[in-house]
Structures are given as structure tokens and as C-alpha cells.
Amino acid sequence: MPLLFNLSAIKNEREKYCFLAVLLLVFSIPYFLPETVAQLLQFDRELIAQGQGWRFITGHFVYFTFYHYAMNVIGLAFCSFFIYWYEPRIIFWLSFLLIPIGVSIGIYWFSLQSDIYRGFSAVFYGMIAMGVFIVARNSLWLAGVLALALYGKLYFEQQDNFDRLYMENYIDAAVATDAHLAGTVSGLIIYAVYRLILLFREKLTQ
Question: When you count CB atoms within 10 A of the terminal residue's CB, does the N or C end of the chain come out lower?
């Protein structure tokens, strides 16, 4: 059976649902903070250059609008339930905590036109990039669909005629295409390093 329907592989089902519920709740808290607090947390190139390095992380956990927030919550639920559900928790936390840093580095150094950034969408790109390999161990066709959707969207976003403002009425900002690319690259690098560490540990135990 494919990964998504392999019920025999589910362990500690109640604990996992509770973890997901708490994670989504905590993830939602920043949306209800005052705008002044959100501005203290958002990625801001000028203020980061002045030493406010926490924005490298916190900028991914604040949002522009309710629609922006809702899309991020749905994305987190999708990645948590459909990709990382049967995996060791360490894989989820590696992606959840390290990909934001990779995205911020990518924006700061390679997307100089991006002065302000909010949201977790670029992290989802990285989580899905990792997820392709995770899902492939159980279902190649599903991994193929996931990869096609991810890299197809990346391809169109990188075209010169791509309208970065097509979501402006919903998220009150342009689509951060460079951040999405940085997230994907970060996810691939993190997963490759993780697999190399596992391989090295296996060699040591032989």
C-alpha cells in the first residue's frame, strides 16, 4: 500500500494527532499578534544589517493577511500529515527549523530586491523537496506527482513573464519567487546532509 494509506505503519496515533494540533495552534499565534509586533518579527533587510538577526527566523512565522495565514496553516498541515507522518520526528524538526534559515540566507544574499518578507511558504517548498524522497520510498508515482507539481511551479515562477503580483489582492504582497527557490535548494541540501550522516553512522556500526 502507498505511504498515505499504510495504516499498519501508524504508531502512537493519538500522540501524533495531538502533536499536530498543538503545532498548528502555536503556528497560528503570530497571526493574532498586533501589527506592531509583526513588524518587529518580519524579515527586514535594513534592520537585519543593523544587527537584528532574529528576523532570519521569526520572519517566517508572521503573515500579511488572513488569507496568507490560512494558506500557511494548510501547507503545514499538508506537509505534517501527508509527508512526515510516518517519519522520525527529527526529520520534521530539521526541515521546520533549518529551512527558514536557508531561505533567509538566500533572500538576504541573492534576492537583493526583497526588503520585507513574511510567511512560511518558501519553507514548504523545501519541506516538499525533502518529501519527494521520503514519499518515493513507498510510492514512486506519488513522489513523481509531488516532484512534478513542485518543480513545475518553480519553473513557471522563474520565467520573466511570471506575474509576481497575481496574489496581491489576497496576501497584500508580491509572490516571493526567489524565496521559493531558496527554500527548495535548502530542503535538498538539508536532506542530502541528513542521509549522508545516516549512511556514515551505518558504516561505523558495521
Answer: C
